[in-house]
């Protein structure tokens, strides 16, 4: 599942990168920085665009609606939006949680 | 992108929402509506969802379906709303929660999810519903007026947050219109209220549609964060 989600995220970043002056270095794979921390690439608008695009592709691929920017995500000490890897882990966690609740 | 615009209207089972669904279908919009209970009418180019506007899961499912079937959303009319006439000392907490949930949470939820769809085309028009009960400080309508005051703030702040996505957010504040919403309000009270307006008459559905038409025009892309009260309030 990790690989599938990583590919979904990278596909969305590739589209967003086209509009960015400083692009997310997707060649770094899971270590590519996204938002926050010392190396964050995305500004708040491009982060919002990425979150929405990823939510929609997760909906399409897994037929389930997740909300990436919820209180848990925003209050986590280590933001899930720091890198591609942290975002992948967070989505896997949300999807597992969703399955447990069904 | 085809030229048929897709419009979502909340609270279309009756009253203003039902009128607007019919009105905009006739203006060649593809209209999607929703209400808690099923509707008793049929319209071409109209699709209905049964849901509670504050049920996040159901609302998200509906938007996912709109994205898959229509692929776009151009206009959102946040019409769904409830009111309750009561003195503050006689207002149950349950009523307060219901009003805030439908009027504030529901409007917020639809704005959020609609904006996610609208930003795909970098275009969107959101029209929320305020009320003259807020500026007129109507006694007996504390929670309703407060919930709609929240809509004014929401509209103003969202207009700034969504401007970069090509989305405008405005609100229309109707005077009393002859619908179920004011059915339980005593006649003397309505008469006093109408007397407080610059133009002392009931509002009509067409008065509301006229303001919405202005807000959702493509040419109104420089008009956002605004509220228009009807009747000169």
Topology:
The complex is a heterodimer of chains A (102) and B (233).
Chain A: H1 2-17, H2 44-62, H3 71-75, H4 84-101
Helix pairs in contact in A: 1-2, 1-4
Chain B: E1 6-10, H1 15-25, E2 30-35, E3 46-50, H2 56-69, E4 75-78, H3 93-118, E5 124-129, H4 142-162, E6 167-173, H5 187-195, H6 205-216, E7 227-229
Helix pairs in contact in B: 2-3, 3-4
Question: Quick recap of the structure?
Answer:
The complex is a heterodimer of chains A (102) and B (233). With 102 residues, chain A is mainly α.
Keywords:
heterodimer; A: 102 residues; mainly alpha; Non-ribosomal Peptide Synthetase Peptidyl Carrier Protein, Chain A; B: alpha/beta; Rossmann fold; 7-stranded parallel β-sheet; 7 strands; 40% helix
Task: Describe the overall structure.
The complex is a heterodimer of chains A (102) and B (233). Chain A is mainly α. Chain A has a single domain, classed as Non-ribosomal Peptide Synthetase Peptidyl Carrier Protein, Chain A (Orthogonal Bundle), CATH 1.10.1200. Chain A contains 4 helices and no strands. In chain A, helix 1 packs across helix 4. In chain B, strands 3-2-1-4-5-6-7 form a 7-stranded parallel sheet, with helices on both faces. In chain B, helix 1 links the parallel strand 1 and strand 2. The longest helix of chain B has 26 residues. Classes of the chains: A mainly alpha (102), B alpha/beta (233). The interface between A and B is small, with 9 and 10 residues.
Multimerization status: heterodimer
Morphology call of chain A: globular
Overall structural class of chain B, as computed from helix and strand content, comes to alpha/beta
Distance between the termini of chain B: 40 Å
What is the CATH topology classification name of chain A?
A: Non-ribosomal Peptide Synthetase Peptidyl Carrier Protein, Chain A
Percent helix of chain A: 55-70%
The unreliable regions of chain A are none
- CATH C-level label of chain A: Mainly Alpha
Which two chains touch over the largest interface? A-B, 9 and 10 residues
Largest sheet of chain B: 7 strands, parallel
- CATH architecture annotation of chain A: Orthogonal Bundle
Total DSSP helices of chain B: 6
Principal-axes geometry of chain B comes out as: globular
H/E element sequence of chain A: HHHH
Beta-strand content of chain B = 15-25%
CATH architecture of chain B: 3-Layer(aba) Sandwich
What kind of sheet is the major sheet of chain A?
A: none
CATH class of chain B, anyone? Answer: Alpha Beta
Q: Largest beta sheet of chain B: what is the strand line-up?
A: 3-2-1-4-5-6-7
């Amino acid at each position: 599942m990790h690989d599938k989600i990583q590919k979904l995220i990278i596909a969305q970043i590739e589209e967003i990168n086209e509009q960015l002056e400083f692009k997310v270095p997707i060649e770094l794979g899971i270590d590519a920085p996204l938002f926050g921390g010392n190396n964050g690439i995305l500004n708040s608008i491009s982060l919002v665009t990425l979150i929405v695009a990823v939510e929609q592709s997760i909906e399409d691929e897994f037929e389930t609606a997740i909300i990436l920017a919820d209180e848990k995500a925003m209050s986590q000490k280590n933001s899930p939006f720091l890198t591609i890897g942290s975002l992948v882990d967070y989505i896997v966690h949300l999807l597992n949680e969703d399955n447990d609740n069904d | 992108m085809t030229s048929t615009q897709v419009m979502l209207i909340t609270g279309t089972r009756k009253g203003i929402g039902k009128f607007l669904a019919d009105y905009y279908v006739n203006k060649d919009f593809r209209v999607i509506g929703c209400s808690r209970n099923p509707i008793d009418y049929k319209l071409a180019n109209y699709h209905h969802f049964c849901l509670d506007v504050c049920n996040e899961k159901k609302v998200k499912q509906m938007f996912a379906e709109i994205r898959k079937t229509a692929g776009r959303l151009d206009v959102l009319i946040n019409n769904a709303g409830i009111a309750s006439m009561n003195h503050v000392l006689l207002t149950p907490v349950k009523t307060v929660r219901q009003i805030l949930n439908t009027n504030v949470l529901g409007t917020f939820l639809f704005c959020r999810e609609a904006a996610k769809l609208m930003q795909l085309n970098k275009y969107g028009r959101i029209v929320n519903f305020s009320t003259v009960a807020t500026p007129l400080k109507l006694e007996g309508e504390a929670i309703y007026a407060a919930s709609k005051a929240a809509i004014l703030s929401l509209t103003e702040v969202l207009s700034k947050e969504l401007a970069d996505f090509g989305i405008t957010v405005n609100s229309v504040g109707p005077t009393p219109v002859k619908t179920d919403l004011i059915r339980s309000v005593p006649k003397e009270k309505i008469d006093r209220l109408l007397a407080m307006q610059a133009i002392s008459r009931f509002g009509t559905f067409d008065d509301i549609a006229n303001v919405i038409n202005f807000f959702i025009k493509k040419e109104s892309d420089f008009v956002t964060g605004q509220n228009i009260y009807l009747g000169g309030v």
